[in-house]
Design brief:
globular; 8-stranded mixed beta sheet; ATP-binding; binds iron/sulfur cluster; alpha/beta; 30% helix; binds magnesium ion; Rossmann fold; single chain; 334 residues
Length: 334
């Protein structure tokens, strides 16, 4: 609720604070049990910082995270350790997030060292082998090193580590972005299988709109530290109401050549402004083709708009659904 994370900028010889990078600036949403909430946006929009705040890898400047009725940032010691078991993370890069000097058994079993009460020491090897099996790796390979695995297999190792403590929520920060498209599909399918079997909830952070569409039940679109639009996957992709979402979707290439000419491309002017000095009013107004005077002064709230269906929220004063030619091909992910 109202999560804010500012990083101070220091300048001059005295290294005095001269400003803030407003990485996350007032973000609120809910994650439901068993669902996948996709978070999309260009690099620098704050989506990874948001993921780290939800894991308490960083403390927020203000705002709160309530998990199962418990205010996470108010917890200490044992209660916080319990919460840490429930919320785990899978990182982007399977090449750098695994220690090359440790065996797969050590890597996947690492969470048991931090939470020794989960599996008794005697049972660790078996527990790790079961995890390898669950993510589609050969349990016999427990003594191998990360470099002996392909990129997709390494991400399976990262996932095995992520689910070792039987968490309730998995935060996945660009989990397949570093992988080839064909391998992406296998890893995404594995994640869906695990979600069903283990009753996991996912926060799936990515910049790839097709992968997010494929896996998500709901999607949030971030721009410069704020949520621009939030809703069911069908609504966000089928009838987006925020001009930024419309532009993002219009930029996705059309696989079907007969549709290619029909697709309208919305080209945004300029670059993303610096999060150290975001525009007044609506942060998108410097690049928005629909911007009016009001947009420069009034911050649009993320709320239900007149034409929005169900729980489709939009942070635009002039939100209006716009059909974007269906261009996202999810068949190759099926
Ligand atoms: Fe564009 Fe104004 Fe809507 Fe912002 S509030 S997205 S500037 S029309
Ligand atoms: Mg799903």
């Amino acid at each position: 609720t109202d999560l804010v994370k500012y990083y101070p900028i220091k300048g001059g010889v005295l290294r005095r604070k001269v400003g803030d990078v407003k990485a996350v600036d007032g973000v609120s949403f809910e994650l439901l049990k068993g669902e996948t909430l996709g978070i999309v946006g260009e690099s620098g929009c704050g989506k990874s910082t948001l993921g780290r705040l939800l894991m308490r890898l960083e403390e927020p400047t203000s705002g709160s995270v309530v998990f199962d009725g418990v205010d996470m940032y108010a917890q200490k010691g044992r209660a916080m350790r319990k919460l840490r078991r429930d919320i785990q993370i899978v990182f982007q890069d399977p090449y750098t997030s695994l220690n090359p000097r440790k065996t797969v058994g050590d890597i996947v079993g690492e969470p048991f060292d931090i939470h020794p009460d989960v599996v008794p020491r005697k049972g660790r090897r078996k527990a790790v082998q079961d995890l390898l099996d669950l993510v589609g790796l050969n349990p016999e390979h427990i003594n191998r090193y990360p470099h002996q695995f392909s990129g997709g297999q390494r991400q399976r190792i990262g996932i095995a580590r992520g689910i070792a403590l039987n968490p309730k929520v998995l935060i996945c920060d660009e989990p397949v972005s570093a992988l080839d498209v064909s391998v992406q599909a296998q890893v995404v399918n594995l994640m869906e299988k695990l979600q069903d079997e283990l009753g996991l909830s996912y926060i799936f952070i990515a910049h790839d709109l097709s992968v997010v569409r494929h896996i998500s039940d709901r999607v949030g679109v971030m721009y410069l530290g704020k949520m621009a639009e939030l809703g069911e996957e069908d609504d966000i992709y089928g009838r987006p109401t925020h001009p930024y979402t419309q532009a993002l979707l219009s930029a996705v290439p059309v696989p079907d050549p007969t549709l290619r000419d029909k697709k309208e491309q919305i080209v945004l002017k300029g670059d993303v402004p610096s999060p150290a000095n975001p525009p007044s009013g609506c942060r998108f107004h410097t690049r928005c083709w629909k911007a009016q005077d009001k947009c420069k002064t009034d911050i649009p709230l993320l709320e239900l708009r007149p034409d929005g269906a169900g729980e489709h929220l939009s942070a635009c004063h002039f939100a209006q659904p716009r059909e974007i030619i269906e261009t996202i091909d999810v068949s190759d992910l099926a």
